Amino acid sequence: MSTKSVITGCGAYLPQKILTNDDLAKIVDTSDEWIRERTGIRERHIAEEGEKTSDLATKAAQAALEAAGCEPGDIDLIIVATATPDLTFPSTAAIVQAKLGAAAGAAFDMQAVCTGFIYALSTAEKFLAAGQHKRALVIGAETFSRILDWTDRTTCVLFGDGAGAFVMEAQDRKTARGRGYINSYLRCDGRLVDLLYVDGGVSATQTTGHLRMQGNKVFREAVARISQAMEWVATDAGIDIHTVDWFVPHQANERILKGVVKKLDLRPEQVISTIAHQGNTSAASIPLAYCQGVADGRIKQGDLVLLEGMGGGLTWGAALLRA
Fold this sequence. Notes:
The chain has about 325 residues and is an alpha/beta fold. About 35% of the residues lie in helices and about 25% in strands.
């Protein structure tokens, strides 16, 4: 019998420490007005010293498990989308598996930067559809504060830390009742790697490095490529994009979100945005925004939801699901 991969629970975690725009103005040449006008960001959460990506991921996963009514032992696949792992190896997913006490199945990381959660969600669905696994934890978790150059006002004002998680379960179509993952669209153009990257790494420099970005060029690429992905994933599913209930984008920049809305002739009120109070949390931003939509009652069971993201690589993609 064919199955559907259904999101049965989601969870979110944000570090307690909040860094406002006014706080940033004390350490770098910027202002609250300058940041808000260019990005829409007012504040972001920052991990405490000693608080790791796996810690954030574990707390989000625990919340997702509770929402799904599951125990850690019910999970047989863990995928963590992150560009800021605890260690070079083992994977952050392996560390999360141990912290959860979920000792069965597979665990690995997915690295596609800000598109990482879309890549991880699509990958988990393939494992579930193949019948190799029954229930997956798909997590986006980042501590981008660890790779920021705090003297570069063009990048350090954009990013924050956080984690979001989905419990994704293989259900037969009768049980799913139309809910679940529909399809996705994943792309990468490695020729554009110099638009958004970290200038360090194990093999290249034996250092962690700092995030570097050509902001104006990223903006131009983002609107076109994100719009393309969203249109394709809806059209391929035979769905008019204007019938989608909610759009849950990667929270990169409010100007990018508005650009996509205008290009696709969408309604701004359909977009779930958390950027003002969370900033750009890379692979964590999509599940964090989705969880916010569930928590405040906007996203309801049966709603059609379109997720999208773009990140370093350049990578970009979209996923369509019924909540």
